[in-house]
Amino acid sequence: QLQLVESGGGLVQPGGSLRLSCNTSGFTLDDYNIAWFRQAPGKEREGVSCISKSHGETYYADSVRGRFTISGDNAENTVYLQMNSLKPEDTAVYYCAAGPRFAGLLLFEYANWGQGTQVTVSS
């Protein structure tokens, strides 16, 4: 059974950093695309970043490119999202999800989700 558990969210001031973790079980990272999505109150869930570790491919939404970095650790079965230079508009619940290799940030391609972790950027 595929499971994903997010952690690392919290309250941070604008300009600060957080590292989110997505701990996975029931599958190997090399077999799936792992993506981070986020959903702010009153808004639709949107893609943030994804990684296909076995193919060395990463992708970022324009809104986070240059500030966020996605990486994976096969030994730990964990995917990380390093978030730097955080802005108030980054405030959202962040979810990780597992999908097929060419899923990119297409929401409907992802059938397996974690429960989410809250990130709040505020002074």
Structural overview:
With 123 residues, the protein is an all-beta fold. The chain is 0% helix and 50% strand. It is built from no helices and 11 strands. The chain has strands at 3-7, 10-12, 18-25, 33-39, 46-52, 57-60, 68-73, 78-83, 92-99, 112-113, 117-121. The strands form 2 sheets. Strands 2, 4, 5, 6, 9, 10 and 11 form a 7-stranded mixed β-sheet that branches. Strands 1-3-8-7 form a 4-stranded antiparallel β-sheet, with no helix packed on it. A hairpin with a 4-residue loop joins strand 5 and strand 6. The N and C termini lie far apart (40 Å). 35% of the residues are buried. The mean pLDDT is 95.
Oligomer: single chain
Kindly estimate the percentage of residues that lie in beta strands according to DSSP: over 45%
Structural class determined from secondary elements: mainly beta
Helix content: under 10%
Topology as a string of helices (H) and strands (E): EEEEEEEEEEE
> Separation of termini?
40 Å
Largest sheet: 7 strands, mixed
Provide a count of the helices.
Answer: 0
Round the Cα radius of gyration to an integer and report it.
13 Å
Low-pLDDT stretches: none
